[in-house]
Amino acid sequence: MKKIMISPSRYVQAAGVLGDLPHHVAELGTKGLLVASGGGAGRAGIDDSTLVKGGFQGECTKAEITRLAALARETGCDVIVGLGGGKALDSAKAVAAEHRLPVIVVPTIASTDAPCSALAVIYTEDGAFEEYRFFPRNPDLVLVDCAVIARAPARFLVAGMGDALSTWFEARACSRSNADNTRGGKSTLAGLAIAELCYRTLIADGERALRSCEAGVVTPALENVIEANTLLSGLGFESSGLAAAHSVHNGLTRLPETHGALHGEKVAFGVLVQLVLENAPSAEFDEVIGFCRRVGLPTRLSQLGITDPAAGRLMAVAEGAVAPGESIHNLPFPVTAGEVLAAILVADRIGAAD
Ligand SMILES: [Zn+2]
Questions:
Q1: What is the reported pLDDT for 354?
Q2: In the chain, what's the furthest Cα-to-Cα distance?
Q3: If you measure from the C-alpha of residue 163 to the centroid of ligand 1, how many angstroms do you get, rounded to a whole number?
Q4: What is the pLDDT of residue 49?
Q5: How far out from the chain centre does Cα 238 lie?
Q6: CA torsion through residues 150, 155, 156, 161, sign
Q7: If 0-12 CB within 10 Å is exposed, 13-18 middle and 19+ buried, where does residue 42 land?
Q8: What whole-number distance in Å separates Cα of residue 158 and Cα of residue 209?
Q9: Residues, CB within 5 angstroms of ligand 1 (ion)
Q10: Catalytic site positions
């Protein structure tokens, strides 16, 4: 059986580690192109005097990737540095892939598990989803400054916990069905163990990490959750696969009123739906929903902006979740739109109860 483990080459995490960025650029090349909004670089407080400033226009589009790739060539840059949120990081990965250059990824929030991955989400100029782009290599370095993340709005950290909450349950479903991961291989034992550790870390440290972020300070619990959101969840999803929670997320995006909710907030509700579909043990369901309530992740549709849960509109969500190619088909049993709709309604009812 072909097993594939997918990871970045190196992961470095500590408060204050951004100060080492020039050293890391020098390890990988001679001249770095910084892909970051002006505000992003300023908030992170990096010394970017040695970097070519590429700027970032806010959306990861084909045109923006082409612009930055041309700039890298014109200025002779041989290392790409992405700094900021998911879109700046994805753009940096795409530019690096165009020229087969090394890339350093510097997330300034811990809101998703994308930083370690070898994929990017490409959007149209209007901000609509266009395609996933898979790269041959994962980032050469993921550099995470806990002090920067501690100062970011706590909602981002919570959303990152929602994204990370799905990793173990989706990995476990893929393992039960022997489904392929994102590179067409089966999960290693390491991938599964990391996915489970991700979940256990959230349960143990999630609430304290949230309070730490609210206070703008770094604690061991916050460090653990930053690692869970970024490294453990990143390795877990890419190496062990996705299942229903992310498909429910994708279905939810069909309703415009959910667009104010962050990726991880929708994924967290998707976890509840997956557990209903799996008819998971009640102790497990209770642990998950209790965690969501403690850290403020949504447990009902109204918290995602869906105040009119007419069955017809939710059917569009369910149909989106079971569209061909969706990862929900990695569950170890077949699932229909009607079954997903039922699970959404039940999750919402349990979530609404005290
Ligand atoms: Zn995700």
A1: 63
A2: 60
A3: 5
A4: 79
A5: 10
A6: positive
A7: exposed
A8: 9
A9: 163
A10: 163, 246, 249, 263
